[in-house]
Design brief:
This protein is an alpha+beta fold and about 325 residues long. The protein has ten helices and 17 strands. The protein has a seven-stranded antiparallel β-sheet with strand order 7-6-5-4-10-9-8. It has a seven-stranded antiparallel β-sheet with strand order 14-13-12-11-17-16-15, covered by helices on one side. The protein has a three-stranded antiparallel β-sheet with strand order 2-1-3.
Amino acid sequence: PDWASLTLGVFVCQACSLLHRSIPHISRVKSVQDTWDASEVELMAAMGNNAAKAKYEQKVPAFYYRPTHTDCKLLREQWIRAKYERNEFEFIEKQEPYSAGYREGFLWKRGRDNGQFLSRKFILSEREGALKYFNKQDARDPKAVMKIETLNATFQPAKIGNPCGLQITYLKDNSTRNIFVYHSDAKEMVDWFNAIRAARFHYLQVAFPGASDEELVPKLTRNFMKEGFMEKTGPKHTEGFKKRWFTMDDRRLMYFKDPLDAYARGEVFIGSKENSYTVLAGLPPSTQGYHWNNGITIVTPDRKFLFACETEAEQRDWIAAFQRVINRPMRPQEYAG
């Protein structure tokens, strides 16, 4: 790393150095290329990254999301603030907002039909095994009940158009339902995210009693493998190609008319090569009606699915994403889905 926090005694990468600058009362950042005096060198030698980790991360819950350099700014900044500003992982009582097994509050939720964000009351209850939201403040019955069993949450600031934008998905009648929420307070939004992860963690501990934390943590929430626009045609391959927003969520390839639609227009299950699934660059020679020239053909046991990408780079990225899934053997429970 090219940067260091003089006050915390840790070396940081450039991306994190920018986030450390946002908490100047806690962290004073300096380049390793600058001139250092003896007392500054001594402080770095006395602390260092390993000792700092042992101090500031001593009680991080297993379910708590530890962001990487690829995560959105919100998650990375709140991780730094949780560690160094709020000392959340030194004092367990500070973890109550996401560890209590129950959380309620108001989030701005996007309306399914009109696209307006309105304040809605949300309740997450591990005891009831659900996340619920209510359309009216005094409503007795929830507008939706999302079972923790199928719940997922992923930050989508660019897609939602808000730095704290969170996409929550769950299964309703075996179809994926999306809801889009945000909160103006960054800590509040990350606390909701980690509360959902905690609920999922405790649900999975009961569902898989022999599983280790290391096995369960990757299952708590997941980011989508790939998203973006492609063109698609229907099963007869004679209809014109239509532009759709595609989301690759594990083995489910879903397509939407608009990226913020509540329900997918359709889903394609992507199995494994052992089950005769393959992905090919290009389209069959007789194909017509596409506007974008970078074709992809997915061959399944039942039929061929034809897609077209705007650029070669997008085509390469989509093929790589499909190939990763197809190369992975199917788990027994995936056959039921």
